[in-house]
């Protein structure tokens, strides 16, 4: 088994930073003073970190040109966050954000290149990550470097195989590590839920759970229509992030590999505004009961201003703060929950009962909302059982089960 750094005794709690003025288009006219206002608001909630998203076309407008001024702006934002008392995770290749895809023009139109398979395009992305890593290395508040946000959202326009994805991820993760050098810092990647629930999706659970320094999960309540299927106050919704951590742990080779709930949020109308504070409390508390939890990072800090056009409706109301910078009730609920968990840290008891999951690439949907395995796990959870997830290949491996504290493995009916 591989060795992963153990999660800290106290999970981290943060938020994905969406600039209040101009959304991510604010990178075109970066203003450190305005960013500092946003970051001070975030720090005021008692959160300890942010995740940031510089846009790929601005960083690398030509395959062989990385703009030094754009890289400097990323470094400056990390430094401004440090002044606010916040640590920072930097996503390198954006990539996909809130239903928009950001490609440099040299990958599109007459110059179209598959971003996952074209050798020169892969090397260009690797060079960008090496450059970012080198520019950011040594900053004490840098959590690390992630390849990019939910890169598997790009597969529709960039057909790719599982083997291609593995090569792509391995190449870029190595480049990010080279850029950061010997400095302490995580190197990670992220995928949206199709990696876990999508039959035959080329980004696999194994890639998410075995590549990089920890596993990231983005358990959204709209995936597979979870909230509409079960209801916004249902156990299936309130335990979804917890389930995502346990599912990810099952696919890891190292039983102690940390899992980061890197995106979760309360999208309307899936979670009505009146239910959002309760949803936030339940989600964070339930996830905090997972032994391998690295942290929870809420999506997102600030609402998208309605002066900006063409976003899906739910994107306009996902923030902890509204578009004027005022905290919403969900912000208060999250802040109080985080403070309570930090004030009264509790040891996480092992999950002694596990539910066996058959790993079959073409039937991943059984583990997603509406799937037979998902519903069996949630039935146990509603009965006050705290089930782990274990792949059937490990169901009789006593060494593995002991390492996870599992004493009983049951199979779905």
UniProtKB/TrEMBL annotation:
SUPFAM superfamilies in UniProt: (Trans)glycosidases
GO molecular function, one term: hydrolase activity, hydrolyzing O-glycosyl compounds
Highest taxon above the source species: Bacteria
Keywords of the record: Glycosidase, Hydrolase
InterPro entries the record matches: GH, Glyco_hydro_5
Domain called Glycoside hydrolase family: residue spans: 27-266
Coiled-coil residue spans: none
GO biological process: polysaccharide catabolic process
Family from the record: Belongs to the glycosyl hydrolase 5 (cellulase A) family.
Name assigned to this protein: Glycoside hydrolase family 5 domain-containing protein
Lineage: Bacteria, Bacillati, Actinomycetota, Actinomycetes, Kitasatosporales
